[in-house]
Every structure is written in C-alpha cells, then in structure tokens.
C-alpha cells in the first residue's frame, strides 16, 4: 500500500510506501492517518482495547518511517470496554487522538489519548435518545476548541 503526497513547492506528486510491517494489512477502523508533531503518522490501535497497546508510525523528513510503541498505564485500562470497538475521529490542536465508540449508545463517551504523555482521559457526552442507538459514529461531528486572538490592522 502507498500514500500519495503533493509537494507544493515543486508541484509534484510523490508515492510513499507504508512501513513494511503494515504493507500486508488492510487499513480499516483500527488504523488512522493522523498528524503527530507536524508530520504524517499512522495510528494503529488494533490492540488498544484488549491489551492497552498502540503503535505510532511517523513519517520522518527523509521519507523513512519511525515506530513508537505505547502501552497504556494499567490504571487507565478501566476507561476501555472490551466489547466496544473504537474509531479515530481525529486529533486535537494539542496532539491528542480523539477516539469514540463506533456506534452511539446510552451514556456515550469520547476518549482523548495524549501520545506525548501516554495518558488517556474520558469525557462523558451524556445519555442519548433511543432513536440514535446503534447508529454509526459518522453522524457524530467533533470540533476542537479553538481560542485565538487575532489583531487585524486596517
């Protein structure tokens, strides 16, 4: 599998090979392309729910992939439910990966995984109506909190 990147300066398309270890795998809801430290990265959370393990593949400037393996702190494993599959919804401006259950259900929640601190926090969204139970996560839209003061000169 390959990614395509576009170099704005040269206006060229470049093919980027995924890491060899991932080349035979199918990108599904257990892997996501995210930004990590201003660089493209593959967030593989295949074993997060069962074992608390995450692999982060970062595309370095030379076109090589570096791998960072993280293990969730044992005290935070209670934030995960083995029967609920998670999907990546994106990242925050602070570099936290936003994870949520694939389907909406009562007492819905969102997880924020801080990759720098290897720390996870859970935010309860609240009780949803029966009408939404079992609906796909794609109906959920998150907007990251953004505070900035911009001074415009006229």
Write the layout of secondary structure elements.
Blueprint: E1 2-7, E2 12-17, E3 31-36, E4 39-44, H1 48-51, E5 53-59, E6 65-71, E7 86-91, E8 96-101, E9 108-114, E10 119-126
Antiparallel strand pairs: 1-2, 3-4, 4-5, 5-6, 7-8, 8-9, 9-10
Protein name: F-box associated beta-propeller type 3 domain-containing protein
Organism: Eruca vesicaria subsp. sativa (Garden rocket)
InterPro entries: F-box-assoc_dom_typ3, F-box-assoc_interact_dom
Structure description:
Residues 4-140 form the F-box associated beta-propeller type domain. This is F-box associated beta-propeller type 3 domain-containing protein. This protein is mainly beta and 154 residues long. The protein has one domain. Helix content is 3%, strand content 42%. The protein contains 1 helix and 10 strands. It has one helix spanning 48-51; strands spanning 2-7, 12-17, 31-36, 39-44, 53-59, 65-71, 86-91, 96-101, 108-114, 119-126. The strands form 3 sheets. Strands 3-4-5-6 form a 4-stranded antiparallel β-sheet. A hairpin with a 6-residue loop joins strand 8 and strand 9 (108-114). The termini are far apart. The model has no long low-confidence stretch (mean pLDDT 79).
Quick structural gist:
With 154 residues, the chain is mainly β. Helix content is 3%, strand content 42%. It comes from Eruca vesicaria subsp. sativa.
Distance linking N and C termini: 50 Å
- Residues in helix, %: under 10%
Class computed from helices, strands and strand pairing: mainly beta
Strand content: 35-45%
Poorly predicted ranges (pLDDT <50, ≥5 residues)? none
Order of helices and strands: EEEEHEEEEEE
* Annotation, overall tally of beta strands: 10
Number of helices in the DSSP assignment: 1
User: Any idea how many domains?
Assistant: 1
